[in-house]
Amino acid sequence: MRERFSVFSLFEIITIVITVIVISFTSVLIVAIVLKGLPYLGQAFYSEEVQFAVKMSLFTASISTIICMALAIPTAYALTRTAFPFKKLCQMMIELPLSMPYLVLGLSLLIIFSSDFGKALKELGFKVVFDKNGIIIAQTVVNLPYVVRFIRTAFEEVDERLEFISGSLGAAKWERFITITLPLSKNAIITTIILAWSRGLGEFGATLMLVGATRMKTETLTTSVYLNLATGDTGASMASATIILIISLISLFLTNWIGRKNPQESRMKDVNR
Amino acid sequence: MINTMVEIKDYSIKLGTFQLNNINLNIREKEIFAVLGRTGSGKTVLLESVAGFYRKFSGEVCIQGKPVVKIPLERRQIGFVYQDFGLFHHMSVYENITYGLKIQRKDKAYKKEMADKMAEILSIGDILNQYPGTLSGGERQRTALARALILNPKLLLMDEPFSSLDPATKEMMYQQIKEIHKLFGCTILFVTHDFNEAQIMADRIGIMVKGELRGVRKSTDLFKNCQDQEVNQFLLGRYEKGGAVHERVCFAG
């Protein structure tokens, strides 16, 4: 044991000390929420409002994740596998919202959907402002640039020579995509789905601007934290925060578990065993 | 009459700082042709150009008289075996071999029959259920060959196919590829830096130096002197460094 510790250099000791500080800071944040929220958790689960917020969050996050993936996969393919004019510029436009505050994104959405276009949509039966549709749209807009970027990176990492070989074996472009590109990006895609879903659950800024914070109408878990805190109900607020924390932990666990899973058999694995 | 399988006319391509210059070459049907050159001489780029990998170039590359880039990749009927064999790692050996048949929507029984036939020819019957990550170099190469040959391509392109094999496996593969050539009757174009390999395998050999095809010789005439000093230096196993010519210890020839 002593030998093991003696091999640490000063540089390594400094990095370990900094890591301990980071871990302590994060742990304090988590413990603060858990300690404050746990006593109210049981009560919160029976609360109609919290149940509504949980259902609303799970529903909107799931739908927005599906929309994000449906839009991001073809977009990432076009950006990585096709040659169209102004591709770099398009890529920058798609990823621009990554550096924009969500509140500003929400404001843009509010301007769009409060305009004549939004009113026309409302008349057609698709209400966005102050409606759950707005939550889905806000989550989609916030998550889409991330999802496109993750999937694009995953596609870029797939060796294009394999797709070329697949083509030389008779596969059309869509068949190369389905049989080679997608399966080889599978882990990254699943991880992206989980991350997009968790980020959807935690979205607040853009949602607040577009649909406001109305109890039992546009109330997600994050909105519930905000509303209860604003009305002085710290316990209920902490309980909602704890539920978000539990869901985040589960998705983080799933992400790591999928990341560690390696479907490819390797000789090295046998050697290392 | 001997037909031409591959015809390259005034072909030039620039890839970053590297350039292939004015390549002219005819490869006959059912011929085994080797492109011989040092690392970085442009052999692989030439091979990929024949496969139609690149779009921006000058000149023309034709397969059986048709410009290769105008034939959709899936209809070119070429088999390509990369140096690292390019196996699909998420598929078993069986799935790799039958990939082309799956794309052609062939039924299970036919796929099984053809896979068994290829497995017998290439002696890989015992590894059909394994994944590429668990295979040795020779097994990977034979899997890649089986995958390409199962569709009976008219042109088989191989990028330094023997470079990662041990001497004994190499010798065995030389014989096996010659037998495959007899059996399938396809034209084979492969690139190598190994004189011995080129002479054993090929009918004719093209010599690449600095992105240029400096000559095409019968494999029996490979070491004949010519007026191109760089070709002579390459064949004699010498290399230039800082203007001076140095002898190179050559194990390959």
Topology, please?
The complex is a heterodimer of chains A (about 270) and B (about 250).
Chain A: H1 2-6, H2 10-46, H3 48-81, H4 87-95, H5 102-114, H6 116-123, H7 132-157, H8 160-168, H9 173-184, H10 186-202, H11 205-211, H12 221-230, H13 234-260, H14 267-272
Chain B: E1 4-15, E2 18-28, E3 32-37, H1 43-51, E4 58-63, E5 66-67, E6 78-81, H2 93-97, H3 99-103, H4 108-122, H5 137-149, E7 155-159, H6 167-184, E8 187-192, H7 195-201, E9 204-209, E10 212-218, H8 229-235, E11 238-241, E12 244-247
Parallel strand pairs in B: 3-8, 3-9, 6-7, 7-8
Antiparallel strand pairs in B: 1-2, 1-4, 4-5, 9-10, 11-12
Helix pairs in contact in B: 4-5
Describe the fold and architecture:
The complex is a heterodimer of chains A (273) and B (253). Chain A has 273 residues and is an all-alpha fold. Chain A has helices at 2-6, 10-46, 48-81, 87-95, 102-114, 116-123, 132-157, 160-168, 173-184, 186-202, 205-211, 221-230, 234-260, 267-272. In chain A, helix 3 packs across helix 10 and helix 7 (132-157) packs antiparallel against helix 10. Chain A is globular, with a radius of gyration of 23 Å. Chain B is of the alpha/beta class. In chain B, 31% of the residues lie in helices and 29% in strands. Chain B is built from 8 helices and 12 strands. In chain B, the strands form 3 sheets. In chain B, strands 6-7-8-3-9-10 form a 6-stranded mixed beta sheet, sandwiched between helices. In chain B, strands 2-1-4-5 form a 4-stranded antiparallel beta sheet, with helices on one face. Chain B has a two-stranded antiparallel ribbon with strand order 11-12. In chain B, helix 4 crosses helix 5 (137-149). Chain B is globular, with a radius of gyration of 19 Å. Residues 238-253 of chain B have low confidence and may be disordered. Classes of the chains: A mainly alpha (273), B alpha/beta (253). Chains A and B meet through helix 8 and helix 9 of A and strand 6 and helix 3 of B.
